[in-house]
Write a structure and sequence with these properties.
Layout: H1 2-7, H2 9-28, H3 53-226, E1 238-244, E2 250-257, H4 262-275, H5 284-291, E3 293-298
Antiparallel strand pairs: 1-2, 1-3
Helix pairs in contact: 3-4
């Protein structure tokens, strides 16, 4: 029984409510029951209610049957939908089959038409080949005659070209000999011109060396006059780099090779700087080549 109460608590609740309602209704009807005599107050009693288990079982059976009916209806509905889906797929497959058959029929007709056209084209090709064969034979005959004429023309042309080639070879040989003679003459003239140029350059070099030597001596004289220094170590040579402007002004001076005595090196640089301006040639080419940047050598006398 307790297991039934646990499985159907709702049915038990409904049954209790019905019994309590009936009892309340009976008690509320006046005169139905005579008033009991007054009795002294007694402690309240706990009243137990009787539960109709058969009614509960019936309700439970009905509820179970209703749920089974609903489950059966749900399954029937699912089967109906599955049946509809299967019928829809079958209809689609039938339509696809019909479409495939239609396309296959069209493809068969297309192939038949293509075969018919191919047969017509084959016959036309055979006729064209027959005509082409006739034309080829006629063409071969025409080509044979044309070849004979061509060979005759080529023989005539070969003879003419041989004669022309012989004349051209003779002319080319004469031209070659003339070119060689002209080239020998040109080489001779170039050699003479080169020799004259070398002689001219040599004369210019000699003239420039005279000018360079003259102005170098003048510059050395100016520097010697400006050298006023009494420093121990006289006698050791050094080299000073001098840079001049186009006007001969001293731009800078620096010792490239030291005498070993820094004081002596400074005195020699001061002698150059003191000059301020050095004598230079008027020829810009000689100045740029020899005097824009030059080197003064100091020996033991300065």
């Amino acid at each position: 029984m307790f297991d039934f109460i646990r499985r159907a608590p709702g049915a038990i609740t409904v049954s209790l409510l019905i019994h309590l309602g009936v009892i309340g209704l009976l008690l509320s009807v006046p005169g139905l029951y005579p008033a009991p005599p007054e009795e002294p107050e007694k402690p309240p009693l706990i009243q137990a209610q009787v539960i109709d288990l058969s009614a509960l079982r019936q309700q439970e059976d009905e509820e179970s049957e209703r749920k089974q009916q609903q489950e059966a209806e749900r399954k029937a509905e699912e089967e109906r939908k599955q049946q509809q889906e299967a019928e829809r797929k079958a209809e689609e497959e039938r339509k696809q089959q019909q479409e495939a058959e239609r396309k296959a029929e069209e493809e068969r007709k297309r192939k038949q038409e293509a075969e018919r056209k191919a047969e017509e084209e084959r016959k036309q090709q055979q006729e064209a080949e027959r005509k082409a064969e006739e034309e080829r034979k006629q063409q071969q005959e025409a080509e044979r005659k044309a070849e004979e004429e061509r060979q005759q023309r080529e023989e005539d042309l070969r003879q003419r070209r041989a004669e022309e080639l012989e004349r051209e070879m003779l002319l080319l040989e004469q031209q070659r000999q003339q070119r060689e003679a002209d080239e020998r003459e040109r080489q001779r003239q170039l050699e003479e011109e080169h020799l004259r140029e070398l002689q001219h350059q040599k004369r210019l070099e000699q003239q420039q060396q005279v000018v360079v030597s003259d102005y170098s001596e003048q510059i050395q004289g100016v520097v010697r006059r400006n050298f006023l220094c009494a420093v121990d170590g006289i006698g050791r040579p050094s080299v000073v780099e001098v840079r001049l402007s186009p006007g001969g002004h001293v731009i800078s001076q620096r010792t490239l090779r030291s005498s070993g005595n820094s004081a002596l090196d400074r005195c020699r640089e001061a002698a150059v700087a003191k000059a301020g301006s050095l004598p230079i040639p008027n020829d810009d080419a000689i100045f740029n080549r020899y005097f824009r940047v030059f080197y003064l050598e100091f020996d033991g006398s300065e």
